[in-house]
Structures are given as C-alpha cells and as structure tokens.
Design a protein that fits this description.
Largest sheet: 6 strands, mixed
CATH topology of the largest domain: Alpha-Beta Plaits
Shape: elongated
Helix content: 55-70%
Order of helices and strands: HHEHHEEHEEEHEE
Number of strands: 8
Amino acid sequence: MHFLLCSLLSFSLGAAICAFVVYRRQLHWQRETAERLEDSIQTRTFELQVALNELADKNRILEEQNTLDAMSGVRNRAYFDKKIQAELKRSRREQRPLAIVMLDIDHFKQINDNHGHLAGDAVIRGVAQRIQDLLKRSSDYVCRYGGEEFALILPNTDAEGVLALAEQIRHNIAEQPFDTEIGALAVHISAGCFASIAGSEMVSTDFIHAADQALYLAKTSGRNQVKLSMAAVVEATAVAVEGTHDELVN
C-alpha cells in the first residue's frame, strides 16, 4: 500500500513537473513571440515613419517648385496672388503698412527684336537675381508677375521705405549692364510703388491697381523712373517723399 502511494505520488509529482516545464516553455515561447512581434511592429512603424517623412519632404519640395518661375528662378504669379492676400490680412490685423512695387523692364521688346529671345531671357534672369540680391529681409519677396514685369511684396514697409528700395533697384540695374551671350546689355526699369495700412474695405487689387497707375506714369514720363501712388488710400499711412526720380500720383 505504501509503495502504491509512493508510486502515485511520484507519478503525480512527475506529471506536475512535466506540466510546469511545458508551461514554462510555452510561456517562454509566448514571450519570445511577443517580443519578436513587438520588434517587428516597431521596425515596421519606424520604416513607415521614415517613408512618411520622405514623402512629406518630397511634397514640400514639389510645393516649393510649384511656387517658382522656371525661367527667372524667383516666385511666380500664383505665389504672388496667394502671398499678397496673406500679407493684406496681416497688415489689417497688426495695423502695419504693406508696400508693393510693380516693376517693368523698359523697351524689353526691342531687346528681343534686336538681340534675340535668348538675350531677353538672360536679361529677365539677371534682373530677377539683381532684385533678389537687394532684398535684405526674409519677409520680402520678388515675384515674376508676367513677361518682363515683376512684383515685390514688402510687409511692414511705408512709402519712404518702398521708394528707397525701388530707387536702389532702379539705380543698380541702370548702372551695371547685364552679361549675355551677345555681350553686355544696358538695361533700365520703371517702377510704381504703393504703401498703406490695409483698411477694412481694401482688397489686393486696390494695392495692385495703385502701383500699376504709378508704373504707368513712370513709363509715360520717360521711363527709368520710380513713382509713388497715393491712390485708393483708405487709411493714410504713406508719406510724400521727394527724390530725383520720385513723385506722388494723385
């Protein structure tokens, strides 16, 4: 009887030990499986995040390229239209002046006709780069508005400031000929400026139209000039500044 009890006890103990060993092995296997799964998930998550970051970078590059003018390398008309809306709202919100410059290359058709379109393209690129180099603030932008015309957006800039910058650009371009494949070409520009705090009823076309009027006067007055427009000012912030090439347009 005692032997039978011992045998049963030994068998039960052996079975329990076997069951425990099997349980530990299963637990170990489950832990390893869980760890491998977690590692795999982390790896896949990391790879997915890397892929998403690369995609975001490519999208940013594509968006940036979509705002650039292919020929001149500066911002394009679409960017100007979007940017001026944003700066108009900021001017109204912060009650700070916003200035724009409409700038046109004088006698550009003659450059194309007399020297060829490649020379004309070189002049456009040169003028764009010249303007870009003269913009010292990161908030200032030059955009190719169309053809031989450029537009500058100058936040927090009053009439005195925009006139000074436009005259600096005009003088720089007039005094330094542009290198082209047919030789150095003398180039002149005309510019129309407008500066104001954006009133509650003002829209972007008010700024553009006012600067365009000043540009038209610069053209009809003999070109190679800078003019300032006071037209359509709702909140008078622009001040009259007289200079060799500067007049007020009423």
